[in-house]
Design brief:
single chain, 642 residues, mainly beta, Methylamine Dehydrogenase, Chain H, Herpes Virus-1, 2 domains, five-stranded mixed sheet, 34 strands, 29% strand, globular
């Protein structure tokens, strides 16, 4: 019988946090008095809050658009959750009334495409919205444009829905794609590829395949398709551009290169190859391509800054804001080019024409970057400072910088988000007026003990080579072995094989040695989030629960410890639960109502078989032996009701 490599140390996962605007239907729009809409039930959040509706779901990645107001989050089990604005059917249409919230359109009449204020589980939507062929697959990547969404499956397929007036969904031109449809090619080349990533601008999209090829579709304006032409012509009184409604291979400077990551601004694209070289094409205004000139680039061009022979100065991660581009080099330092302010250095009058290190961030090691409408976010995993997150952005108005209550809403220089110090981030997604985080909870005590045990066992292994270990390789490693991140987590996947000298193939390690290495790797990946920082995070929306136990209706302390559910914040005596719980659980604790797989507010089918009734007098459960369902286990210590 196969056993897990580690019993208590899980693969990295986190909880979904949101900051900034939550009234997704009206963000960025003005009322008749030319002021921002104010919706008391969906206010702007000045600090990052755990999204209560999915507080029991294990997420790994989150995606949104610097020019849109909808988002997609992916779970450890490769499920997708969607929410936000839906006026262009970017979440599919029509959505069940149970997951939407009515709002007025610009004509003061109820909108026919209401927003989804909370994450909806993709598989819980009707088959008319999400075909069974898509539901049967896992989702491993996603992209959000201004009004369209692309989902990438674990089978290498790409599916899209939403605004398609210029072919940005990769389907024959029609105003909207209301049900998710698979993106296909007709020349036979694309259909043989396995898609692994997607990115989207306002009216164009890119797909990256496992073989390292890039495909583009949508409008050709500004040269974003990378095929050397825009097709610009005048029809009547309008200027019209060529469009591509199926994936076109992007060649030229990308030919023969293995691209490992792609990113798109509103009208520009950046690609990163396996050697750490970067390429840009599309709208070149304000230096966003990093090429040193303000000219549109109709075909991919290599960015000179990262073209040197020193591997340390090459790139390992890229991201794009609406009018700028972000990079993390192999020294794990942040670089930036383009426009990111409205005045002074970095503005339209003084744009950064080539990638430059951000002065206030030098000296730290960063793992994540994200660019929004007017915001920039960076997360560091620093040896001295630990985990911390910074943000800045001039003219931010909805609290999307997440600097906290009472803090400025706008900032021209990087500001440390102090209450997030000590919280490990797995992903960041800066949007038009909102920001989303995947924050990793603290490890359980059991996970800490297991990691310590593995570390102790490793330290006790003698230096002499064991019989079951593979002999050391005689390969001479390069002075610097660059690493490249294609995961979205900020993890390194190692350097390109083409940059290493040839060497004889070493003897394969035994299964026992492989298992030991895997155990050590898992132990090293244990969450770095501190309990004190995690317990300060608030949940959204707020709930006002009384202090009485949900079972017995009493707040009597004589009945033992009062526990608080991590999702609904309801109070429960441990002794009143069935089976009873003694003490405070090791890990997040969810009440019986919340400790179930989340169905995204869409009613789920009834269970095929009724569960067996529990015995009336169950034995108390000791904390060390407490069994938890997958949806709720494995984080910080359970909360004692305060």
């Amino acid at each position: 019988m196969a056993t897990s490599i580690t019993q208590h140390i899980e693969k990295p996962w986190g909880r979904l946090l949101v900051a900034g605007g939550t009234d997704y239907a009206t963000l960025g729009r003005k009322d008749k008095s030319n002021k921002n809409f104010v919706n008391p039930s969906h206010p702007d959040l000045q600090s990052a809050h755990i999204v209560r509706a999915v507080a029991n779901v294990k997420f790994t990645n989150v995606f949104t658009s610097h020019s849109g107001c909808h988002a997609v989050a992916l779970t450890l089990d490769k499920e997708a959750y969607l929410w936000g604005r839906n006026e262009h059917h970017q979440l599919s249409y029509p959505l069940p009334p149970t997951v939407t919230e009515p709002h007025l359109a610009s004509n003061d009449k109820p909108s026919s495409t209401p927003m989804a204020p909370e994450p909806i589980r993709l598989k819980a939507l009707p088959d008319a919205n999400v075909p069974p062929a898509l539901k049967e697959q896992g989702i491993v990547h996603a992209a959000c444009g201004r009004g369209h969404t692309i989902l990438v499956t674990d089978q290498g397929e790409a599916w899209s829905a939403g605004w398609n007036v210029l072919g940005q969904c990769g389907r024959p031109e029609t105003e909207h794609i209301s049900s998710f449809e698979q993106i296909k090619g007709t020349d036979g080349g694309f259909d043989k590829e396995k898609v692994i990533q997607a990115t989207a601008g306002v009216s164009h999209s890119l797909l990256l395949t496992e073989s390292g090829k890039v495909y583009a579709f949508g409008t050709a304006e500004k040269g974003v398709l990378g095929n050397g032409r825009t097709g610009e012509h005048i029809a009547g009184s309008r200027v019209i551009f060529q469009t591509a409604e199926e994936p076109l291979l992007v060649g030229h400077a990308l030919e023969g290169k293995k691209i490992v990551q792609i990113a798109s601004g509103q009208q520009h694209n950046i690609a990163l190859d396996s050697e750490g070289y970067c390429y840009g094409w599309g709208f070149g205004g304000l230096g966003r391509l990093g090429l040193g000139v303000q000219a549109d680039q109709l075909i991919p061009a290599q960015i000179p800054y990262f073209a040197g022979s020193n591997a340390l100065t090459r790139c390992k991660k890229i991201a794009a804001g609406s009018t700028n581009t972000l990079f993390i080099d192999n020294q794990e330092m942040v670089l930036l080019c383009g426009k990111f302010k409205v005045s002074g250095d970095g503005s339209a009058g003084q744009p950064w024409m080539t990638p430059r290190h951000v002065p206030d961030l030098q000296g730290y090691r960063f793992t994540l970057v994200s660019g929004g409408g007017v915001t920039i976010f960076c997360h560091a995993r620093d040896a001295k400072e630990g985990d911390f997150t910074v943000s800045w952005g001039q003219t931010a108005t909805y609290g999307e910088l997440a600097l906290g209550e009472g803090a400025p809403k706008s900032a021209t220089k990087p500001q440390r988000i102090e209450y997030l110090d000590g919280i490990e981030m797995l992903d960041l997604a800066a949007g038009q007026s909102s920001t989303f985080f995947i924050a990793r909870p603290p490890p359980t005590q059991a996970a800490k003990d297991e990691a310590a045990s593995i570390a102790e066992a490793t330290a006790e292994v003698p230096a002499a080579k064991k019989d079951d270990e593979a002999p050391a390789s005689t390969e001479t490693a390069p002075a610097v072995k660059p690493s490249y991140d294609i995961s979205g987590f900020g993890f390194s996947f190692g350097g390109s094989s083409t940059s290493r000298p040839e060497a004889s193939t070493p003897k394969a390690a035994s299964p026992k040695a492989d298992e030991g290495a895997a155990r050590r790797k898992n132990a090293a990946e244990i969450s770095r989030t501190t309990n004190s920082a995690w317990e300060e995070l608030q949940r959204w929306p707020p709930l006002f629960e009384d202090e009485a136990c949900k079972v017995c209706g009493s707040a009597d302390a004589d009945k033992g410890v009062m526990l608080e559910c991590e999702k609904c914040e309801g109070a429960y005596h441990g002794a009143c639960l069935s089976p009873p719980i003694e003490g405070v659980p090791d890990g997040e604790w969810f009440c019986p109502t919340c400790d179930v797989p989340h169905a995204g507010a869409v009613p789920a089918d009834d269970e095929a078989e009724d569960e067996e009734e529990e015995e009336e007098e169950a034995e108390p459960v000791k904390p060390a032996n407490k069994k938890r369902k997958a949806a709720g286990g494995g984080a910080a210590r359970g909360k004692k009701r305060r």
